Amino acid sequence: MTIARDIHSKYPVEVRWLAVDFSDGSKVYSRIQQGFREIAVGISVNNVGMAYRNPYTLDELSERELEETLSVNMQPTTMMTYLLLPGMKRRRRGLIVNLSSDAALTTLPYVALYAASKAYLSSFTMSLREELRGTGVECQLVIPLFVSTNINEQWKSVSCWSAIAAEVERFARFAVFTMGRTDCTTGYWKHGVQLTVMKMVPLGLRKEEVTPSGG
What we know:
By secondary structure, this protein is of the alpha/beta class. Helix content is 42%, strand content 8%. The protein is built from eight helices and four strands, in the order ααβααβαβααβα. Strands 1-2-3-4 form a four-stranded parallel β-sheet, covered by helices on one side. Helix 5 (112-131) links the parallel strand 2 (94-99) and strand 3. The longest helix has 20 residues, at 112-131. The N and C termini lie far apart (41 Å).
């Protein structure tokens, strides 16, 4: 509600909002679909994600943490795209922006499920992009490194890049500028440099040191 008021006060646009908890799983999507039934959505930015509170081996996770990670990190992007695509294809225009993470490009022991969920988003987006060629609908993959959000504050100890994390508003401004200009981006020029350095290391050697809970 506060963000909606702020946007409306700064820009001459109508703002509608709908609060949902994606960890509730499939039951939230009928509400979402009803909420935008009369709206011709032109751009969909899918940036939903969560990380479990502490690094664990997979079998140490609670069943709730496992289910929430699966429900929040992969299902919303998939389902929102599924719900919006028919209208976009019918109008022959639209943009789907999916945010993954550099966690998809490296080995992250003790955060394995989180990293795998980000790899899913990357693969899903790149494959979808090929499906959409010629439809008028574009699909962009954004692979940021560390941005100063709540989720990344939680995992500062995971990455050596956290010391040079991008400030949220600065990152967002750069990322918006890339829309319609590139199919795949880190969203921020410094992250592009960091990713180039990362990719110089063979995949089998890209391993972030994570301290397991209690270790």
